[in-house]
Design goal:
The relative contact order is 0.04. The protein is built from 2 helices and no strands. The protein is flat. It is mainly alpha-helical. It has a domain at 45-93.
Length: 93
């Protein structure tokens, strides 16, 4: 497969004459209006017994996750960062 461009990707070509423009000709000016501004307001939160239960369940899950041995604290991350940065400084043989 030597000489295949793009390592397995299909080579796509685009012919500008096929869409009605001459080669080297200036493209027409943009005549469309910019979109009207929209108000991006947050959706009000749902309240009720079901939502309160799900919030409590989520908080309990977070608390339980932090007690697991797989949860890394900041101290673990700092030690890991120092170990990795020292390892990266070693010369490559």
């Amino acid at each position: 497969h030597a000489g295949v461009a793009g390592r397995g990707r299909a080579a796509l070509t685009f012919n500008i004459e096929a869409v009605g423009f001459a080669k080297g000709a200036a493209l027409p000016e943009d005549v469309s209006e910019p979109p009207a501004p929209t108000d991006n307001k947050p959706v009000p939160l749902k309240t009720g017994e079901d939502e309160d239960y799900l919030l409590a369940l989520k908080q309990e899950l977070r608390g339980t996750t932090k007690t697991l041995p797989y949860f890394l604290t900041v101290e673990h991350h700092e030690g890991l960062f120092v170990a990795c940065s020292e390892w990266c400084k070693q010369p490559v043989l």
